[in-house]
Specification:
- By secondary structure, the protein is mainly alpha-helical.
- The protein has 2 domains: 337 residues, no CATH class; 95 residues, no CATH class.
- It contains 19 helices and 4 strands.
- A 4-stranded mixed sheet has the order 1-2-4-3.
- Helix 4 packs antiparallel against helix 5 and helix 5 runs parallel beside helix 16.
């Protein structure tokens, strides 16, 4: 893959910018005691625990491709998996650079500059989430399509629905292109990953994996949003400099069909998420981080847009003032670069949230106690992360739990599984509240002291 071009100075700029962006994102990831969303921990647990329970690799919630991609890195713990995520992001940016070269970006060092230093890239791209491999596979599929390697591109697009469910829409877009070309062999290749996965899933689970695509409303917990739900926060996450510089890219793209084709999958991805959350489908939480795979598109557009502005300025250049205009163009480029870097460096490591602090304190309290911890029930991912012993989720009604059972209640997830705080404290002869953590409380430890009456 050619990631740099031009004189040595531009090659040095590319490598220097790439290294700074990589190291900054790596620092944010390793210094973050917290997580962007609790789902990161749940995803990490799936890959980690798949060594003891291989069937977890097929988890549709964890996303099969993500489960497998992080299977090996998860052995080293959460931080090792985060390092791997940053490496995957670096590979995505390398692929985006090659895409940029093919669609006419001249200053290739602008691409890592305008991707690494989008605020959400350093804030999220270290996370053990499906968006990271999805971004890599999507960029790879786009590059392969640009290079007319439709067979390999079909495999890539076929993997997208197994990495994030929204990838099904992008696979559909690619299939329309293949149908138009009457490329039936590549149509079969595009379906191959889904067919193989569904076959393995059925052999193991004895049910159809694709049934998940027909359950459009598994819960109404997450609600819905407006048509602009994902658009309004973009300046904050992409950064004003990159977002504004993306706009002039319309002009060079209007004359470049290949360039337009590059951005179609990303626009389809945005549209798919917008429709899903607008109508409250598929239990979408409407999190802005769902759009992280679009970061390469914004970076490419910003590079094209800035070069368009620099090219347009040449129309004002006259022989008598060429030197002055050259200085002004260089200064403008430098100012844009500085503004982009400043936006990217505004990211800070994520602190442990209040729930994480409370659950960490709960695990410390248990480790210092002399309680029999044979049976510990908990529902929060932070407890599982910090607790060194064995715990499990609630699988029977609380009233049927054995005396001596320790229940770690939390304000976020416990009520979803039937552990209601008011119900527990209303039965003091049945449940002994041994400790509280955080204001509210955020978490509490209960001990079953006798059999509760059946509800």
């Amino acid at each position: 893959m050619t990631i740099t071009a031009g004189p040595n100075r531009e090659r040095f700029l590319y490598l220097a910018i790439f290294a700074v962006g990589f190291c900054w994102t790596l620092y944010i990831g390793l210094a973050s005691a917290g997580v962007p969303v609790h789902d990161e921990l749940a995803h990490y647990f799936i890959s980690r625990d798949a060594w003891q329970q291989p069937e977890l690799l097929l988890s549709m919630w964890g996303r099969p491709v993500r489960n497998i991609v992080y299977w090996l890195p998860a052995i080293g713990g959460l931080k090792a998996a985060r390092v791997f995520s940053v490496i995957l992001t670096g590979l995505t940016i390398g692929i985006a650079t090659e895409i940029g070269r093919l669609i006419g970006v001249q200053r290739l060092y602008l691409i890592p500059l305008f991707i690494w230093f989008q605020p959400w890239v350093s804030a999220i791209s270290f996370a053990v989430l499906p968006q990271i491999p999805f971004a890599l596979i999507l960029a790879g599929g786009v590059l392969l399509a640009l290079k007319k390697k439709d067979g390999a591109a079909s495999i890539a697009f076929g993997l997208l629905p197994l990495t994030r469910h929204e990838g099904l829409a992008l696979l559909g877009l690619w299939l329309l292109y293949l149908f138009w070309k009457r490329s039936w062999r590549n149509v079969a290749l595009a379906f191959l990953p889904l067919l193989l996965f569904n076959l393995v899933f059925f052999l193991v689970e004895r049910e159809a994996a694709f049934a998940i695509y027909f359950n459009t409303a598994p819960t109404d917990r997450y609600g819905s949003g407006t048509w602009l739900h994902y658009i309004r926060p973009l300046p904050k996450y992409v950064g004003f400099p990159v977002l504004l510089l993306s706009l002039p890219a319309i002009f060079p793209l209007a004359k470049n069909r290949s360039g337009v084709a590059v951005f179609l999958p990303y626009l389809a991805y945005l549209f798919t998420h917008t429709v899903i959350y607008r109508f409250g489908l598929f239990a979408s939480g409407g999190y802005q981080l769902f759009l992280l795979p679009m970061a390469p598109a914004f970076g490419l557009a910003a590079a094209l847009g800035l070069e368009q502005l620099l090219t347009a300025s040449q129309h004002f250049t006259r022989p008598a003032n060429q030197r002055t205009w050259a200085i002004l163009r260089t200064s403008f480029l430098l100012i844009c670069a500085i503004l982009a870097v400043v936006a990217g460096l505004s990211t800070r490591p994520l602190p442990l949230d209040d729930e994480g602090v409370a659950l960490q304190n709960a695990t410390n309290w248990l480790s210092e106690s002399d309680l029999d911890q044979t049976s510990v029930i908990a529902s929060h991912v932070w407890f599982e992360y910090f607790y060194d012993g064995d715990s499990s989720g609630l699988t029977t009604p609380a009233a049927d739990l054995q005396p001596g059972t320790i229940v770690v209640w939390d304000q976020h997830y416990s009520e979803r599984v039937g552990l209601v705080y008011d119900d527990l404290i209303s039965l003091p002869d049945c449940w002994q509240e041994a400790a509280q953590f955080g204001d509210g409380p955020v978490a509490a430890i209960f001990i079953k002291s006798a059999r509760c009456p059946a509800d």
